[in-house]
Amino acid sequence: MLGNLPGQPQPAQKGFESRLLAALSALDLSRPVFVEAESRKIGRLQLPDALLAAIRGARGLRIEASLQARVEFLLRDYDYAMADPAWLNGRLEQLKGLQSNETLERWRSLIAGQNFPALVEELLTLHYDPLYQRSQASNYQSFEAATRYGTDRLDSAALDKLAAAILAASA
Prior knowledge:
There is one protein chain. By secondary structure, this protein is mainly α. It has helices at residues 13-25, 49-57, 67-77, 79-82, 85-93, 101-112, 116-139, 156-170, and strands at 41-42, 45-46, 61-65, 147-151. It has a two-stranded antiparallel ribbon with strand order 1-2. Strands 3-4 form a two-stranded parallel sheet.
């Protein structure tokens, strides 16, 4: 695993690159390799330029999940954030200047009221999705032409089914 859990410090850049090289070296290149679209920076770490160029130049695919499925997935995957409202409010502070003060205050109110589904939905539709669409369209050559896979569920069974469909199409 290359990632760190919240609250744990990131490794130094050199340590990150060493772990990344070890993980890449362990891949079986006779099988398809799937990589999530990633930005150049992950926290304070930076992907190596050659790796980023290879990812951005590769043939892409797009998993398009319904908004409801994404909200449910994120509520499960980021349950630690919902359990720590102070931490979550701290993350919202980083959006000052990107979102209006009124929007940020509404999001703080949703946190205070523990209305996390509404919060996640607004974060997706008002912040993440618009930024993601612009970034992907400008950074990934195959973004518009990418094969699309739709789903209304992101639970384990649905993800297994989706992965099987992607693998079958890649064979």
